[in-house]
Amino acid sequence: VRPGGCPARTTMPGMGIRIAMLAAECEPWAKTGGLADVVDALARALGRLPAGVVDGPVDVFLPRYRGLAEFPDGTEVVESVVRVPDPRRPAGVSDIRIVSAEVNGYRLRLVDHPAAYDRAAFYGDAGGDYADNAWRFGLYCRAALEALRADGRPVDVIHLHDWQAGPAAIFRDLRYADDPVIGPAAMVMTLHNLAYHGWTGNPALSQLGLRPGDGVPGQNADGVDLLAAGIEGADLVNTVSPGYAAEALTPAFGMGLDGVLRSLGDRFIGILNGLDTTVWDPATDEVLAAPFTADALDGKARCRADLLARNGMDPADDGPVLGMIGRLDPQKGFDLLADAAPTLLGRGWRLIVQGSGHPELADPFRALAHAEPSRVAFVERFDRAMARRIYAGADAFAMPSRFEPCGQGQMIALRYGTPPIVHRTGGLADTVVDETQAPGAGTGFVFEEATAAALIEACERAAALRADGLATTDRTTSAWSSLIRRGMAVDFDWVTGSAPRYVEAYQRAIALRTASRPATRP
Hints:
Elements: E1 19-22, H1 34-47, E2 59-63, E3 77-85, E4 93-103, E5 106-112, H2 114-117, E6 124-125, E7 128-129, H3 133-151, E8 157-161, H4 166-175, E9 186-191, E10 199-201, E11 219-220, E12 223-225, H5 226-233, E13 236-239, H6 242-248, H7 258-263, E14 268-270, H8 298-310, E15 321-328, H9 334-346, E16 350-357, H10 359-371, E17 376-379, H11 384-393, E18 396-399, H12 409-415, E19 420-423, H13 426-431, E20 445-447, H14 452-471, H15 479-489, H16 498-516
Parallel strand pairs: 1-2, 1-8, 2-5, 8-9, 9-13, 13-14, 15-16, 15-18, 16-17, 18-19, 19-20
Antiparallel strand pairs: 3-4, 4-5, 6-7, 10-12, 11-12
């Protein structure tokens, strides 16, 4: 029996782990980046594991932002209200609606409080982050914990994702230490990107119901780092690839948190993200001009022609086509591609780039697309359908990220038969094998330095191998075709790879949490 009298169901034969996730994004409901894809895919995969591993559908808590996607027709929706401590209300509490529905193999639980979440964007506007983000996400975490309490069922693991869930690690031990549902629950913190901390200075601590000097996780003399709070308060911490986990322990990549991560010892691990192969499958993708598989690549040629025609380019031109998709952020290396573009265009490449974000990163691609519309296309928006067409129709896919915790684009590109060209960092180094260094065993092209020159050199290696393949009598047996088929054969499936590793992490976190709490008296 756990402290407080709730049975520790995970020690009982045939009973799985009950898991609740707290995340600020979840595809397809709310997305700005890869966090949303991971939360959705991991929750789906956990639900597809063998019976007895997970107890019922995973609960995924998400703020109900403005414009959230609607539930599919016929979905059964359950609404409830929880009373949540609210430091901004005169009475000190707010009644918050929880809207729950089973979708995509998990239970989505929307925290509905318009004053906090009915805004034009998730985290901020043109002026920067919302000044009350600490209150917004603190309230979200309290509402999620109160909803779990109201369920009246023991929770084995509360899985926190990034800084927005960090307040839950503070509240568990500060406000719910003796609660029979929340108090015994183990916490796992997943770091998707160490660049964003959710810093809350002392003047804003009241938004969390805290004061300077409270001594909570993540706190120093100047305020609370909510990402550090999650790291320090969790029982087990992971990031999304072994490579990035090793890099994060260094000052160059730890973003100021390398010290606290090193202090965790073996409680900080890397678990490589997976790919939902039911969502990403060129054999069944209805967006594509034609389906294809590793054994029947004819459809890929049709996808290439369709992509080029849609973007005003000549499908009959055999010159290589380089695709890139992502958030226009300095991390992603779009500036490296912009600097490399004149040389690549001069050597016969064409570019199709999709992304939105920093205007200064968009400007060079706008200019290139305007100057050479038959050779450069810039899709300055988030377009799901066009992204799929780029993955399937480009000849190579660029990911020159300066750092990359894991990355999903390179996994999708491999599955869609488009060799990735990547900087050797984090999860990119974990997932792409350089064909030049391992001829006949590679899956893409890797370059060592985050420079335009190194990117150009890798692109030229790819172009040379592809040209050799086009020049052979039987293209299906060329080194280029073999490279494509090897990439398509790599197994990144969440169910067979990453989800079982998370279950192992959950089990270990439960054991650590149990060992850290006093035994229940007879």
